[in-house]
Design a protein that fits this description.
The protein is an alpha/beta fold. The chain contains 7 helices and 15 strands.
Length: 271
């Protein structure tokens, strides 16, 4: 999905599958400096973005790009014969020559390093503040939970709370988690609240494993703070069980709603 100045751009498709761009719509809403938002749904959004930017260039209009979730963020390194697709997408964005590129909570620092004129907006800590107020989090007895050491390193430097960290052992053949231990100063009492924090959630299996461990340690209520929540969360157990009480996220990817999900809008009210 592409928005310009908070207006969703309408695209149609020719019979042969080519994209038809509504130039009249763009011309009517364009200003001297335009705020373009990319909410990535699939790869067709990238070519739509190119058409929009090139057309704005033809109108001699400047543009700032905001990408709610940067596509291919998981592919941020080369392992074996894997393709470094994040680098290629970043090169494509750079080739469009936006005046600024704003990205929300990148999966790693590799993304921002690959982009020109990049500004990073860290949303998970902002979401965490909302959750802390909403659930009456007590910093003296309640815990922040990091699902792995990477999350602890990424978020822990900005947070001064009691914390626990998941230590995962994966099966390198299947990719599944074989074992999960929890490190940190373990609670000696029952009834504490725990807020899990990370940047990206798919089906949520890792968070369910962590939540079950926290329950074993005596957690009474467990919450999940996640900037980028994929629609596949509806296929997992997070929303279909009572183990995790509420999910705090943004609409960077998510298109669906649920009574257990609280969304912070980053699209300016347009979806």
């Amino acid at each position: 999905m592409i928005l310009i100045n908070n207006n969703k751009i309408n695209f149609t498709t020719f019979p042969n599958g080519e994209t038809c761009v509504d130039g009249k719509q763009i011309k009517n809403i364009a200003t001297n400096i335009n705020n373009v938002i990319l909410k990535y749904n699939d790869d067709s959004d990238l070519i739509k973005l190119m058409f929009v930017k090139k057309y704005l260039d033809s109108l001699n209009k400047k543009s700032i790009l905001s990408i709610t979730y940067f596509p291919y963020s998981r592919m941020d390194r080369i392992e074996g014969d894997s393709v470094f697709t994040l680098k290629y997408v970043s090169n494509f964005i750079n080739s469009l020559q936006f005046d600024k590129v704003i990205i929300y909570e990148p999966h790693s620092d590799v993304t921002s390093a690959l982009l020109n004129n990049c500004i990073v907006k860290h949303m998970s800590v902002k979401l965490l503040r909302h959750a802390i107020m909403d659930v009456n989090f007590d910093k003296d007895i309640d815990y922040i939970y990091y699902p792995d050491a990477s999350a602890a390193k990424h978020f822990g430097k900005d947070l001064i709370f009691k914390s626990l960290t998941g230590l995962k052992q994966r099966d390198f053949v299947t990719g599944r988690i074989k074992k999960l231990d929890i490190a940190g100063e373990l609670p000696t009492y029952k009834g504490f609240k725990a807020i899990m924090i990370d940047d990206l959630c798919s089906r949520g299996g890792t968070f369910m494993l962590g939540a079950n461990k926290l329950k074993e340690l005596g957690a009474s209520n467990i919450y999940l703070v996640i900037t980028h929540c994929e629609n596949s969360i509806f296929e997992g157990d997070i929303l279909n069980t009572d183990i995790i009480n509420k999910v705090y996220t943004t609409n960077s990817i998510l298109d669906k709603t649920n009574k257990k999900i609280k969304i912070l809008d980053i699209l300016g009210g347009n979806k």
